[in-house]
Specification:
heterotrimer; A alpha/beta (about 250); B mainly alpha (about 375); C mainly alpha (about 350); B: about 375 residues; mainly alpha; about 10% strand; C: about 350 residues; about 65% helix; globular
Chain lengths: ~250, ~375, ~350
């Protein structure tokens, strides 16, 4: 499908735009204030001609999603047995249990309760999650607690999976599970490196993939997509001068 | 204990004359045996490794971030560039994850062909592993023999999709291409050739005394510890844990075939070697079964032209030649690219176990162990 | 005058050239043999079937930039390759390629000199080569070469003992240290010593592999571990000297093994009268053929076997080879007295 060169316009997007009229309409948009137009157009929703709409619509994306949907399990899906035991023991730490396309997710709040729930999941005989498949994070900037830290667990004995999730703010401490599953060591380092989640109690919290002196955390949604490489393209002399300055500083 | 005696002797010696500090040896990122751009900072006492710090990231291209700004189909070709010696397996993992997110049914013929491609890919990847692993230990002929057979698989892939390394061979919902005419016969021929060549490799290595001495009892790790460290794939199975995503959480068409999951007993380098050698045979077994029972039918399921999964997250894993490759993908349901794209790379998790494996061994064992966990740096750094 | 100066100088000049040419073609032979083992073709570009490859290599190495690392010990760094190369060449002085032959009305022996302690000379001079390796590794002021030179010295010491022990049992058989004398005693006994001393031969061969740093004992230069070992920091002609010395040493070990165990220039089965027609082939050709067989086995082993580990090599040397070699000396001595 990717070989298809023609732009495919599904019926979904609201502005009924076609590539052809876009070019002649550009001058038409100029006299009026383009910035004010979307606000003006928004209340007048059923405006049939929609002359200047195609231009601002792709520029201003719909506001960022506020977080994952985390739908509750439908009634006809039976909850795994170990979840009942977990609820009984740590009910106040479990904010929600969600189910989507066959995956169970336990959302834990507050983040400081993570360790006890994780330990219970690892040690309970009917859960026995002895294998930490993955630790990762998702960034949902508009939300107050912007990070979802996601732990994908697997049981090699019971052969089932679960995901646990905590919400965390940029500075909020998320306890490290590397003591429970040594496998989480590097995975948490990567989460720290890429998102800057404040993982505490980690045996060796250093950057993993990025250089040690790197500024910022690249996988945050607000991290600029165009990095310092642009300067090299636009103004190589300036780039070289800055690099030499930095090298000299290092030597001294 | 001789070690205690030595340290007692060292304590008696006048310190300025005999400086017995540990030496720090920087191995890589430019080193013949680090399989790319891996860097290991070894702390040595003589030639014995006291500690090792693995430094990765030299091949970090930000594929996860890139994918968040590509549409769902364009990402397939980014997955090629992760485990570039097993691109079809990574393709499969990604496509299955998106299919799971969209609840798309893949036709049976497509699942069969995917299985065949995936197992051919496993054989190719194991060929590369065998060659480089043997080369690291000094058996250079096996390297060229293994590459000779890998070449045959690359030819098969070239005939199927036109590419030899980065296949881009799958699509969400099925396959871009049906198998070319005559391809099935060639695959069967290849299976027969590979069977006899495996005997050749084993003649050179399996009972070779030097090979045994170099690999037995090197890097021993028991099952529970391997699980805790998150090792996966043949590296985990070498420690006697029968964990294989193909069996435990069947995907593609694996539940329709008969195959064994070989496991080791001691968890040393030799066991991991034996496990992978046996996996060659099991892969050929699966390929033959799939070729015999290849059903007719369409190769693409019902997928909209613009792929746009509903909002939601999922994690899905498949068994790549290196181990469990998992994709955690979040879709916001509105844009044509994933909101979050995360790869749980098997090489990454296996590499994490390397410091534990090399501790107490000699410098020569370090290269043997790097070979034995079978890493691809493109996947470690992504 | 002619006998004492001109002819020896001529012989030295011829031998030196012959050895250097042989060494460079041995490199080509290795590449070809290993390529055929691995179902490849090897060098094919320079000349028909790559026969001119050594010349191309020589030109390349001589015109390459000669780099001395900034923190290397300059003098030792320069001297080390020479210290490796020279012993490998001067050992040839006592190796007999054939008996005395008539050339232009003169009786010319096909060896440069025959000293009565020939074997001792070989053992002592050949071991000097390792100093070059140790100093080269140390003077590079780099970690991989240093590890490599430590390995080299340990390896040499362990294997020197075992190899010398096998030579002792051989001297007991021959009753002389002279290389020519040893060949002649094999002629008189009508038997190659390899049949009289198979154990000594096996140990000598394994020790020879280890002493020349050949696979499976090529730890000092193990590319996959030490990135080339002692010659990591060398380039151009200095690297070439190390490289050539290794192959020269292979020829030395093969010639010595031929002389000591395979009857030197003698035809096969020198005691069997019925094979006398084999004497029609000149003696030196027999010598070269036998040496070639050894060299081929060296290459064959390299293409087949994985590499030993350093500690395993030590264990093999000290716990297996040396005790067997000493036992062999005792058995030989007892047998000599009793028989």
């Amino acid at each position: 499908m990717s070989d298809d060169p023609k732009p495919v316009n599904p019926p979904g997007p609201p502005p009924p735009s076609t590539p052809e009229p876009a070019a002649p309409e550009t001058p038409a948009a100029e006299p009026s204030a383009p910035a004010a137009r979307p606000e003006a157009a928004a209340p007048a929703a059923p405006a049939p001609p929609a002359p200047a709409k195609p231009k601002p619509a792709p520029k201003a994306p719909p506001e960022a999603p506020k977080g994952p949907t985390d739908p509750p399990p439908p009634d006809d899906v039976a909850e795994p047995a170990f979840l009942a035991g977990l609820r009984a023991a740590h009910g106040d730490a479990i904010k929600q249990v969600s189910y989507w396309v066959g995956d169970w997710t336990v959302i834990i709040e507050p983040a400081s309760a993570l360790l006890e729930v994780a330990r219970a999941l690892r040690d309970a005989p009917d859960a026995a999650f002895d294998y930490c498949s993955d630790v990762t994070a998702t960034d949902w900037p508009p939300r107050a607690k912007r990070f979802d830290v996601v732990y994908c667990l697997y049981s090699t004995r019971r052969r089932h999976r679960i995901r646990i999730k905590v919400h965390a703010d940029a500075d909020e401490a998320v306890p490290s599970v590397a003591g429970l599953w040594p496998a989480a060591n590097w995975l948490e380092r990567e989460v720290y490196d890429m998102f800057g989640v404040n993982i505490t109690g980690h045996p060796d919290r250093r950057r993993l993939l990025m250089p040690d002196e790197w500024q910022g955390h690249p996988q945050r949604k607000d991290y600029p997509l165009e990095g310092p490489g642009e300067l090299l393209m636009e103004n190589p002399e300036e780039w070289l001068r800055l690099r030499n300055l930095r090298d000299e500083a290092e030597i001294e | 204990m001789p070690g205690d005696e030595v340290s007692a002797m060292k304590a008696d010696l006048p310190s300025p004359m005999f400086d017995t500090t540990e030496m720090v040896l920087n191995m890589g990122p430019q080193h013949p045996s680090t399989h790319g751009v891996l860097r290991i900072v070894l702390k040595l006492d003589g030639e014995r490794v006291v500690d090792a710090d693995v430094v990765v990231g030299y091949l970090h291209r930000g594929i996860e971030k890139l994918s968040e700004n590509r549409d769902w189909t364009q990402i397939i070709l980014l997955t090629d560039r992760m485990d570039y010696v097993a691109a079809a397996s990574t393709n499969l993992g990604y496509c299955e994850t998106v299919e799971k997110l969209m609840s798309v049914e893949v036709p049976r013929r497509a699942r069969y062909i995917r299985t065949i491609l995936n197992e051919l890919q496993r054989v190719a990847s194991h060929c590369l592993w065998l060659g480089t692993h043997a080369m690291d230990i000094g058996a250079m002929t096996v390297f060229l023999y293994a590459f000779r057979e890998r070449e045959l698989i690359l030819d098969l892939f070239e005939e199927y999709c036109g590419a030899r390394l980065t296949y881009n061979s799958m699509r969400v919902g099925g396959l871009p291409l049906d198998i070319p005419p005559g391809w099935d016969r060639k695959v069967n021929e290849f299976c027969d050739i590979m069977d006899s060549k495996l005997t050749e490799y084993e003649t050179l290595l399996t009972h070779n005394r030097i090979w045994l001495e170099r690999t037995k009892d090197v890097g021993v790790i028991d099952g529970p510890e391997a699980i805790a460290l998150g090792l996966c794939g043949p590296t985990l199975r070498g420690s006697g844990v029968g964990r294989d995503v193909r069996k435990d959480e069947p995907y593609a068409a694996y539940d329709e075939f008969d195959f064994d999951v070989p496991i080791g007993t001691r968890g040393d380098t030799y066991d991991r070697y034996l496990v992978r050698i046996e996996e060659f045979r099991q892969s050929l077994r699966i390929i033959r079964q799939a070729m015999d029972g290849l059903p007719e039918g369409p190769i693409v399921g019902k997928v909209p032209r613009l792929i746009k999964p509903p909002a939601g997250e999922t994690y899905h894993a498949v068994e790549s030649p290196k181990g469990e490759i998992g994709f955690f993908i979040a879709s916001d349901g509105r844009s044509t690219n994933p909101y979050r794209f995360r790869v749980r790379a098997p090489s990454f998790c296996n590499l994490q176990g390397l410091p534990r494996l090399v501790r107490g061994h000699l410098v020569a064992d370090v290269v043997a162990l790097i070979g034995s966990i079978d890493i691809v740096l493109g996947e470690v750094d992504r | 005058m002619v006998d004492t100066i001109v002819i020896p100088l001529l012989k030295i000049a011829i031998l030196l050239n012959a050895v250097l040419v042989a060494v460079s073609y041995l490199v080509l032979l290795e590449r070809k043999v290993i390529a055929f083992v691995q179902s490849r073709l090897g060098p094919m570009r320079v000349g028909p079937h790559g026969v001119l490859q050594p010349i191309a290599d020589a030109v390349k190495l001589m015109t390459k930039e000669d780099i001395t690392p900034a923190r290397a010990d300059r003098w030792v760094f320069t001297a080390a390759p020479i210290m490796v190369m020279v012993p490998a060449l001067i050992v040839f002085a006592v190796i007999p390629f054939g008996p005395e032959v008539e050339l232009f009305g003169r009786s010319v022996p096909l060896y440069i000199t025959d000293i009565n302690i020939g074997l001792l000379y070989i053992v002592s001079v050949a071991s000097l080569g390792v100093y070059g390796i140790i100093l080269g590794g140390w003077a590079s002021n780099s970690k991989y070469p240093l590890l490599s030179s430590l390995r080299a010295s340990a390896q040499l010491i362990s294997y020197e003992v075992a190899v010398t022990m096998t030579l002792v049992s051989l001297v007991l058989m021959a009753g002389t240290l002279s290389m020519v004398g040893i060949v002649e005693s094999q002629r008189d006994a009508g038997l190659w010593f390899v049949f009289a001393q198979p154990v000594a031969f096996a140990i000598f061969f394994i020790g020879g592999l280890a002493e020349t740093n050949r696979a499976p004992f090529d730890m000092p230069e193990a590319e996959q571990e030490l990135t080339g070992g002692f010659h990591t920091e060398y380039s151009g002609m200095r690297f070439a000297l190390f490289f050539l010395a290794e192959y020269a040493n292979m020829i030395v070990i093969s010639s010595v093994a031929t002389t000591l165990f395979l009857g030197g220039w003698l035809r096969p089965f020198p005691g069997v009268e019925g094979l006398a027609f084999l004497d029609l082939i000149p003696a030196w050709i027999w010598f070269v053929l036998k040496t070639f067989v050894f060299l081929y086995v060296f290459l064959w082993i390299r293409a087949t076997l994985p590499r030993y580990r350093y500690d395993q090599l030590m264990r093999l040397g000290w716990k297996v080879l040396i005790p067997i070699a000493i036992g062999n000396v005792i058995v030989t001595g007892v047998a000599k007295v009793l028989l």
